[in-house]
Amino acid sequence: MDSPSNATVPCDFLLQGFSEFPHLRPVLFLLLLGVHLATLGGNLLILVAVASMPSRQPMLLFLCQLSAIELCYTLVVVPRSLVDLSTPGHRRGSPISFLGCAFQMQMFVALGGAECFLLAAMAYDRYVAICHPLRYAAVVTPGLCARLALACCLGGLAVSVGLTVAIFHLPFCGSCLLVHFFCDITALLHLACTRSYADELPLLGACLVLLLLPSVLILASYGAIAAALRRLRCPEGRGKAFSTCALHLTVTFLHYGCATFMYVRPRASYSPRLDSTLALVYTNVTPLLYPLIYSLRNREITAALRRVLGRQRPGQAPSRDLREL
């Protein structure tokens, strides 16, 4: 390990990417390209379907924002990875500028943070729809959804800017080789010359704001929902409410589980290969699963998709039960 005296600030970085596996590059390229195109197609279909609806339930605005976040999320990381895989000339790593690396990390954190806050807002929406169904239309208005959506984006942006400034003020050593395929926080912290626990405090603070705070709100919402379902005597209504909540909980566990495992750890436990493998799943597979396990299971969206694809007559209207959104 280089000493802090050998640090260069700022310095350009080298993304190692998949250069360790030269023989697997064509297979990885085709695999990532297929997943990326499917992710873009699925999320774009949802955006088009929601835009084509003459009237939209408030929950559909949240689903639309979720698809927009996932669309941008995958565009921040995957296209560069595909370019690196298609240019095998860089044996040691693909160069990325200091500012380019900072921008990529900042956008990655901002979009991930916005999704954390959005999942909490969606949990609140489920709480009102199930615990106070008669007041749902008066409480969860399109104006409230728009304000919550804006707050989610601004919250993620504010945290990402603060974290990016803190990380990129650290001194980096030697050749600045990042053992990763994008500028991830853990890889950058591992590359920093200093080994003080104070360097991890910005990441800890970001995790508290982006992971702990929304998790508390989600748990509180679902605690109230569970209490309401226990008092509900109609098995059919309980089953509908449970199936709707199960979809949101699946997305929540995927997002928070991966983020917690990747970032709520001491720097000493950092494993470059393990983190790169998990990040490959986190940035490619989960954005593809979200539309499949959540949005495309929504009756309003599936009916709108049929209209967009010409498989449903214009006069055929879907059921509009708030609990089935």
Structural class: mainly alpha
Sketch the major β-sheet.
Answer: 3 strands, mixed
Q: What is the element string, with H for helices and E for strands?
A: EHHEHHHEHHHHHH
* Overall pLDDT metric: 81
Question: What does this molecule look like?
Answer:
The protein has eleven helices and three strands, in the order βααβαααβαααααα. With 325 residues, the chain is mainly alpha-helical. The termini are far apart.
Write the topology of this structure.
Layout: E1 13-15, H1 25-51, H2 58-86, E2 94-96, H3 98-131, H4 136-139, H5 142-167, E3 177-178, H6 185-191, H7 201-231, H8 235-263, H9 272-284, H10 286-293, H11 299-308
Parallel strand pairs: 1-3
Antiparallel strand pairs: 1-2
Helix pairs in contact: 1-2, 1-10, 1-11, 2-3, 2-5, 3-5, 3-7, 3-8, 5-7, 7-8, 8-9
Describe the structure concisely.
With 325 residues, this protein is mainly α. It is 67% helix and 2% strand.
Characteristics:
single chain; 325 residues; mainly alpha; 3-stranded mixed β-sheet; disordered N terminus; disordered C terminus
